[in-house]
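Entry 14. Structure prediction run on the chain below.
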Amino acid sequence: MSNNVQASNSSEDFKGGMRVRRTIGSIIATAFFAILSLIIMFPVFSGLLASFRPGRELIRKGLSLNIDFSAMTLDNYLYLFSGNADSKKYWMWFKNSLVLTIVSVVLTLIICYFVAYGITMYDFALKNVLYFLVIATMMVPFEILLLPLYKEVITLHLIDSMAGVILPGLCGASTIFFFHQYMQSLPKELLDAGRIDGANEYYISVKIMMPIVKPAFSAMAILSAMGAWNNMLWPLMVFRSANKFTLTIGLNTLLTPYGNNYDMLIAGSMLAILPIFIIFLIFQKYIIDGMTAGAVKG
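Output returned:
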């Protein structure tokens, strides 16, 4: 009897020790990620505060979290909506970035979905070789491909055009890989069931499989939108006309040896965050599902 009591006490002590260790570990992890979040958000918060100050204050004091209500003003944002030549240029850049991002994301998701669908759901000769070649391109830095792509765009007479910026990045290897990993967890019996019901391959891929892959679409939509919206190097290589500049290029032109428009630059940079932030809010409930569902098969 005493042995049973001692065993029970030992078990309770062990469970209690485990709970204490889990609690301490949870506190440490929470504190670590809270500090990490503050470090990551510092540029955003400091930039937001700077956008309510005159540009000369930014030059004098730099970015900081010091709140001086006497120096705060809405003039920078009012300037963006004033309708003058500078504000018109800003909204032209904003529209160009918006169009480029929407078209790039929609076409990229559609093309990469069908490529991944074909590789995942069908068996054909050299299937694994094709998939390996797709994945191998992920190992090649974009800077190495920059010159060949630039020469290709010139040959196709797509320089200084939206198509020249969009077309080279439509079939992204990382997006294909993500869709492939996600669809590997889906049963192929769904295809057989659709065929038995008389559905053709297009109907099966679009009406049956595509809705199931919606979490992957949402996760990739956010990542693709971020890449297209923030992309600067490739559009800078392709575009020649100022009226075709994207927001990243246009804001960079505000910093010149002859004068710097920090009033417009800092406020415009804060507004440039909004589209990605809105996309994240819309699709956030699908992000975790999209990122984790393909990791577990069955």
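Residues 294-298 have pLDDT under 50 and may be disordered.
Filed with the rest of this week's runs.
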